[in-house]
From TrEMBL:
Identification of the protein by name: Acyl-CoA dehydrogenase
InterPro entries: Acyl-CoA_DH_CS (IPR006089), Acyl-CoA_Oxase/DH_mid-dom (IPR006091), Acyl-CoA_Oxase/DH_mid-dom_sf (IPR046373), AcylCo_DH-like_C (IPR036250), AcylCo_DH/oxidase_C (IPR009075), AcylCoA_DH/ox_N (IPR013786), AcylCoA_DH/ox_N_sf (IPR037069), AcylCoA_DH/oxidase_NM_dom_sf (IPR009100)
Keywords per UniProt: FAD, Flavoprotein, Oxidoreductase
Pfam families: Acyl-CoA_dh_1 (PF00441), Acyl-CoA_dh_M (PF02770), Acyl-CoA_dh_N (PF02771)
Family: Belongs to the acyl-CoA dehydrogenase family.
Protein's UniProt keywords contain Flavoprotein: yes
């Protein structure tokens, strides 16, 4: 067993850290305060090859492995949770389904510009009545001649107001339950496709999230992804990969909270000495450092298995579950270490705390991860 990163992985991590320190971290407070989506940063990420990082070069990607992608998400998330979530969703949900399930023609038409960062993609799965119960999809798609006619709505969709294309799931055979759902490619300029005003959220305010309204949206027959009625399994596979990235993002946010806390604890003097000298503060910092290390290792193990083409559903869910929960805990303790200052906007830890909460909800709640793990261990 070798825990060392390869030269290429180190190079990618350093490249993304430099970019994130220079271009992302300085904007983190601004995008949180204003809710502005930093579209221009995403175009720069595209130029650097970040939006197609784990996609093969043949389709416009950088041909890197999943561990490198996890490192990139962690570094972006360490600089800014909002950029981190939009980055993870853009690649894992917006680009990957084309790579996994698209026909050669769909790959040439959509995957290449997505991986090259020319356009952003979004993934429309969740609905007002189909959240954790993803099989409860109500949006429908009916074949009329050579066109699919899609009607329904989607909620909580990351990046969709800025996306050029969106994958939408819809019921194609109501009698078959989860085996009657299919996935469709919908260019966002298709008549009948519209998005709501972006949500006002607790955290991750600079990451765009909106509803989708699908009103008699017509797409050509060939916009079906893969095989009809295979949509549920397709998005479960997509979410397996996405969970690695949310694990990595959780590690990044926790790392930022830890670094800010360590710095503050060394600088802050109370009772005549730096508070980092007090055992109660040391215990908090030691717990944070330990949990972050373990979470990062779990994320990399799941990524490693994915890269080997081996099953990773259980490990991906475990990594996401553990990383998101230690992230929330680390951000909570970061505020505690900062005391009253931690509760104020002038320090970044209150933002980390707000951003962290979504890690336990998005791409499958902690409760869903426990269901997945319980089934995987044979409960
Ligand atoms: N890979 C491949 N196939 C899988 C699979 C996986 N990981 N998980 C399940 N399947 C297959 C099963 O084998 C089964 O097929 P068979 O009947 O042929 O064996 C089929 O899919 C149905 O599986 P289940 O019976 O397990 O399905 P379920 O209805 O009980 O649901 C669940 C299980 C785990 C709760 C699932 O619904 C789930 O993951 N829910 C959470 C959804 C989620 O994460 N949503 C967030 C999306 S993010 C978003 O939308 C917003 C955004 O923009 C970011």
């Amino acid at each position: 067993m070798n825990f060392d990163l390869t030269q290429e992985q180190v190079m990618i991590k350093n490249m993304v850290r430099d970019f994130a320190d220079a271009e992302i971290a300085p904007r983190a407070e601004h995008v949180d305060r204003t809710g502005e989506f930093p579209f221009d940063t995403f175009m720069k990420m595209g130029e650097l090859g970040m939006l197609g990082l784990p996609i093969s070069e043949e389709y416009g990607g950088a041909g890197a492995d999943t561990i490198s992608y996890a490192l990139a998400v962690e570094e972006v998330g360490r600089a800014c949770g909002s950029h981190g979530l939009s980055y993870a969703a853009a690649v894992s949900l917006g680009v990957s389904p084309f790579y996994y399930f698209g026909t050669e023609e769909q790959k040439q038409k959509w995957l290449v510009p997505l991986a090259e960062g020319k356009i952003l993609g979004a993934f429309g799965l969740t609905e007002p009545n189909a959240g954790s119960d993803a099989s409860g999809t109500q949006t429908t798609a009916v074949l009329e001649g050579d066109e699919w006619v899609i009607n329904g709505s989607k909620c909580f969709i990351t990046n969709v107001s800025y996306a050029g294309v969106c994958i939408v799931t819809a019921v194609t055979d109501r009698s078959k339950g989860s085996k009657g759902i299919s996935a469709f490619i919908v260019p966002t300029d298709t008549p009948g496709f519209s998005t709501s005003t972006p949500y006002d959220k607790l955290g991750l305010k600079g990451s765009n999230t909106a509803e989708i309204i699908l009103d008699n949206v017509r797409v050509p027959r060939e916009n079906l992804i893969g095989t009809e009625n295979e949509g549920f399994k397709q998005f479960m596979v997509t979410l397996d990969g996405g969970r690695i990235s949310i694990g990595a993002l959780s590690v990044g946010i926790a790392q930022a909270a830890y670094e800010a806390s360590l710095k503050y604890a060394k600088e802050r003097v109370q009772f005549g000495q730096s508070i980092s000298k007090f055992q109660m503060i040391q215990q908090k910092l030691a717990d944070m450092a330990t949990n972050i290390e373990l979470a990062r290792t779990a994320v990399h193990k799941a990524a490693f298995l994915k890269d080997q083409g081996r099953p990773f559903t259980k490990e991906g869910a475990m990594a996401k579950l553990f990383a998101s929960e230690i992230c929330m805990r680390a951000c909570d303790q970061a505020i505690q270490i900062h005391g009253g200052y931690g509760y104020m906007k002038e320090y970044p830890v209150e933002r980390y705390f707000r951003d962290a909460k979504l890690m336990e909800i998005g791409e499958g709640t902690s409760e869903v991860q426990r269901i997945v793990i319980a089934r995987q261990i044979g409960c």
